[in-house]
Each structure stands twice: as structure tokens, then as C-alpha cells.
Amino acid sequence: MSEAPCILVLNRIAHPLVRDLMPGAEFLVVPAAPDPQIPPGAESRISAIMARLPGEVRAETIAHLPKLRVISAAGVGLQNIDIPAATRAGVVVVNHPGHGFLSVAEHAVGLMLALSRRIVEIDGRLRSDGWRARDHFLDRVSDRYGTVLFGQRLGIAGLGHVGLHTARICRLGLGMDVSAFSPSVAESVFQEHGIRRAATMADLCATADVLLLAAAYRAGRPPLLGTAELAVMKPTAILINVARGGLVDQPALVDALRTGQLAGAGLDVFDPEPPPADCPFRDMENVVVTPHVAGPSLYSALGLARSNAEQVFAVLAGRRPPHVVNPEVYDRA
């Protein structure tokens, strides 16, 4: 690099370690928006973008940055980056698989336990009613005290890092039976981890006591969990979504939860994000919600910071980083 890089950061820097690993770099941190407000005069200097949700990198932004060479996603997800536009402009896009999956998997298990043991509901009643909350739940133990996960079937849609690690925790730690729908994953992976293969998404839904969505999301595709899939689920089943809100037909999910077609849901992701103020999930006692925070932890933040710095630095130094999303940029060079 002949000059110190100027890096546009949408939202905020994930961890101060990024600065430590890129000494001399200029960081321009701006609020996340579809049309980021770049400081006057900075457009001609920016050579890299670090895009954290809900920040977006659109074609218009790319077109106004003549020195832009690399866009780094916040983690694995890429729905906030116009990859075709970046590729046309010769801009490398990188992401960071394998850094947040431990946090996401543990968060998913936490949502399962919160729902099955009704932890959030009990906590709220204890805070409002005092020790009378105990009698409220003991008197209605059959339907209000919650169940256990031991011996139940966990169905996983998507056997990537998150899906596999959640399977390990639930099978070995909680005594759950695990099945998965993940057509691209080899049979040897299923056998190695003691996971049953579901032939279709409908088969997975029909047999699951807990359904975990951990699949990749691609904009424009139909929801993985729609009306037909919800219709075959057990009325005692719960849904956990730590992947992307677009994987679920949300109006259909609302109906299923309201009518008792589904017992409950633990949701860390929504479509859109942030959800509107009148989002019905907020008022449902059988739903536990968190604001897309399954991935962040000190452990994952340190790994993502290092990966961001190393991959951005590699591109700016003329080297090919390990996790290029659009290799066509190099193939045509």
C-alpha cells in the first residue's frame, strides 16, 4: 500500500482490535443507512468498507467511490451488499465464516430452554406478582410449567457451523434426538454426528418437537418455512430462528402461534429489521424475542475483528484473502 488506507465503517467498529491491527489506517465511522452520509471530500479517499447491519452497500454508493477495492461484511450474511454491482466495479467482497457460530448455537439453545421451561414468562410474572407467581405455575403444572428437552426431536434446517454445533450440544448435552434437512451436506457428515437425514423440509417439520432454522438465506427465494410446512408441524412444537427473518413466512407464523397450531417461537431475526413498532410477536406470551444479537460475544467479536483487519489488509496489499465471495474479480484480472 502506497498510502494509509481510508476505511468507511457502517454502523460502528465491532471491536477496537480492528484499529490495533491496522495501524495508520483512517476510519470513517458513519451511522448505518441505505444511503450512508459520507463526510465531504472523503469519497475520493475511501478504499475499503466494513459494512455492519443494518448498514447497506448499494450500487449507488459503490459508483461514487473511485478508489474502493474491498467490501467486508459484518459476518457471514451478505444480504446488505450489492455483490453484482461490486463485481462489475472490480471490488472484492469478503465475509467471515466460522467466527460467530459458537455464540449463535448457544443462543439458539438458550431460546429453546427459555421456551420449554417458560423462563421469560415466569420471570415477568415473578417481577409483577411476587412469590404468588409460583402458585400460579404449580397450580397449572400440566400446561403452564413447561416441559423438558430430553428425548425430544430437534429438527435442523441447515447443517452449517451453527447447525452442527447446536446438534452436538443438544444430542450430547441434552439427550435430544437430532434430524436435519440439508441436501448439499454429505451423508458422511450425518453419520459422523449421529444425525438422521430428513428427505424434505416437510418431513423435518412433521417430526420435529423443536425446529431450528440455521440455513443460508438468499433474497428472492420463497420462505423455507411457509404455510404448508407450518401446517404439518406438531401443535406442541416450537420454532427457533437464528438465521434470517426471510426464511419464514411471518404472517403465516403469526397465525400459527395465535391459533395454537404451533406452541411457541424463539426469534432472534425478523423481516424487515428492525421490525415495525406494531410487530405482533412483541405481545405474544408464547414468543421469546431478541434483537439479532445471537452472534455478538467477546469471543466472536475478537475473531471477527481479526478477520476483518487481515482480509481487508490483504486486498489492499495486493494479496487474495481466504474468504472471497465474488472470485470473478480475480478470475478476470
Describe this structure in words.
The protein has 333 residues and is an alpha/beta fold. It has two domains: 6-99 and 298-331, Rossmann fold, CATH 3.40.50.720; 101-289, NAD(P)-binding Rossmann-like Domain (Rossmann fold, 3-Layer(aba) Sandwich), CATH 3.40.50. It contains 14 helices and twelve strands. The longest helix is centred in the C-terminal third of the chain and has 19 residues, at 298-316. The chain is globular and about 70 Å long. The model has no long low-confidence stretch (mean pLDDT 91).
Q: How many strand units?
A: 12
Which stretches are poorly predicted, pLDDT < 50 over at least 5 residues?
A: none
Mean pLDDT over the residues: 91
- Supply the number of helical segments: 14
- The name CATH uses for the topology of the largest domain is Rossmann fold
Question: What does the largest sheet look like?
Answer: 7 strands, parallel
- The helix content, as a percent range, equals 25-40%
Alpha carbon gap, first and last residue:
19 Å
Structurally, how many domains make up the residues? 2
The neighbouring-strand order within the major sheet is 8-7-6-9-10-11-12
SSE arrangement, N to C? EHEEHEHEHHHHEHEHEHEHEHEEHH
Radius of gyration: 22 Å
Assigned CATH class of the largest domain: Alpha Beta
> Structural class per helix/strand content?
alpha/beta
Strand percentage, roughly?
Answer: 15-25%
Q: Give the second-level CATH assignment, the architecture of the largest domain.
A: 3-Layer(aba) Sandwich
Describe the global form.
globular
CATH superfamily of the largest domain: NAD(P)-binding Rossmann-like Domain
